[in-house]
Write a structure and sequence with these properties.
single chain, 441 residues, alpha+beta, Rossmann fold, Pnp Oxidase, Chain A, Nucleoside Triphosphate Pyrophosphohydrolase, 8-stranded mixed sheet, 11 helices, 24% helix, 35% strand, globular
């Protein structure tokens, strides 16, 4: 059962007060009466054995997309489960006379307060908590917008107060000052090692080279044996340094700043080093390798013919086109085999002419085809077919290999199909010899 309190200006954020089976209906009455003047207030009287489902249905029925949750005593477990199950719908959680378990990691702000100060004390604490300015944006959309900024990739490490190495992959790294030498990194409060980094004497920032994608993936995982699988050594200030990094900074803790759902760790640089290796980049959820981008530029500016193509998926199948040079032959969507040299814009026009709305991702391969001496540049992406036209769709488990134009194309697609199965794509550059393309990672 639910009740809703309304006031003359109840236009603020929604608040859900939880009343468990053992709570009296009058619980929260003083808070509801006051907060209903400025917020949309709802009280949920738990009746069934699945209070989280009851709360979700209530929010759906009342068309409330996101809510602040308030709970007292053991009802805090309900609020905890609701926030964990539906993090996109819970903006804040306020616990009264309830202490979440020590290992609790919530993505939203949390208030802990006591009821022994009386209703006025609770009202004051809630008013201050609810008055904190939070984003009204869709977090996924905001993250995508942030992802438009190309960053480097780092592994942040520390020896910790217990001397055990800890580390994670991060792209939130910024140089702050030359005098004194300061830098900062951000650690999410939901990270398992946030308290280790918060209290450690220092930390190191390892800027990865473009050959260290596997290392980046390793430290982005929850594997307990990261430091057994990676090559590293202690730095001058005692923090782990990852071998092969483009640069590293060994730092003493300078300042810790609370910042929303993250903490900002500012470090005083105690030692550093760098190499001429190309750094690894990251944008929009994908890695970027400067060496591969440069290889594409070199290929496009070569005196040889340039072919620009795409390995596209549509509904999980490979997109192919008839080969005009061979009866019953098939080719990938590509521009430059005949006529002017290929380019990304020519490829785009071709896809439109073929009735495809395609989104090209990052480069997949840059190589010289040994049979034709063409410089080949291929992207990977997705395609929506507005009109089937000449398009041929092939299952990746049943690609018509004998209808493809050459071994270079077959070799590239074999690698694509294999990497597609594990959901991890590499990028390749260099000479294509005997169906093998050199991997840059």
């Amino acid at each position: 059962m639910a009740s809703e309190g309304h006031g003359p200006r109840a236009t603020g954020e929604a608040i859900l007060f939880i009343r468990g089976k053992r709570q009296a209906a009058r619980l929260w009455a003083p808070q509801i009466e006051i907060l209903a003047a400025t917020h949309r207030v709802v009280a949920l009287d738990v009746e069934g054995d699945d209070p989280v489902a009851e709360a979700r249905r209530l929010l759906d029925d009342l068309a409330i997309p996101s809510v602040n949750v308030v709970a007292c005593g053991d009802d805090g477990l309900i609020a905890l489960d609701l926030a964990a199950a539906h993090p996109q719908r819970v903006r804040r959680v306020a616990f009264v006379d309830f202490e979440p378990p020590e290992n609790t990691r919530l993505l939203c702000p949390v208030l802990r307060t006591r009821a022994d100060g009386g209703p006025e004390a609770i009202n004051g604490a809630l008013a201050g908590f609810l008055g904190q300015r939070l984003s009204r944006f869709d977090n996924r959309e905001l993250r995508s917008a942030f992802g438009s900024f190309i960053t480097g990739v780092t592994i942040v490490t520390t020896a910790g107060v217990d001397g055990q190495p800890r580390g994670f992959t991060a792209n939130s790294f910024t140089s702050v000052s030359l005098e004194p030498p300061l830098l900062l990194i951000c650690v999410g409060k939901a990270a398992a090692s946030v308290d280790v980094f918060r209290h450690a004497a220092g930390f190191a920032v390892n800027i990865l080279s473009e050959e260290q994608k596997d290392t980046s993936v390793l430290f982005a995982s929850k594997r307990p044996d990261k430091f057994e699988a990676a090559r590293w050594r202690p730095g001058p200030f005692g923090n782990p340094l990852i071998e092969g990094s483009a640069a590293w900074f060994d730092c003493a803790r300078y300042q810790v700043i609370d910042a929303g759902d993250h903490i900002i760790l500012m470090g005083h640089v105690e030692a550093f080093a760098y190499t001429d290796a190309n750094p690894l980049g990251y944008a929009r959820g994908h890695y970027i390798t400067l060496g591969l981008e440069q290889a594409a530029v070199n290929a496009a500016s070569s005196a040889s013919r340039t072919v620009v193509g795409a390995i596209l998926e549509s509904d999980g199948r490979l997109v192919l086109l008839p080969d005009p040079a061979r009866p019953d032959g098939l080719i990938l969507p590509e521009a430059g085999r005949t006529g002017p040299n290929g380019s990304a814009s020519q490829l785009h026009h071709l896809l439109v002419r073929e009735g495809m709305d395609a989104t090209l991702g990052f480069l997949f391969a840059v190589f010289e085809n040994p049979e034709t001496r063409e410089q080949c540049i291929y992207y990977r992406g997705e395609a929506l077919l507005h009109a089937r036209g000449r398009t041929v769709l092939a299952d990746f488990e049943d690609i018509p290999w004998d209808r493809l134009p050459d071994e270079a194309t077959r070799s590239m697609l074999r690698r694509f199909a294999a990497e597609r199965k594990i959901g991890r794509f590499k990028v390749y550059s260099g000479d294509h010899r005997q169906g093998t393309v050199k991997a840059v990672d």
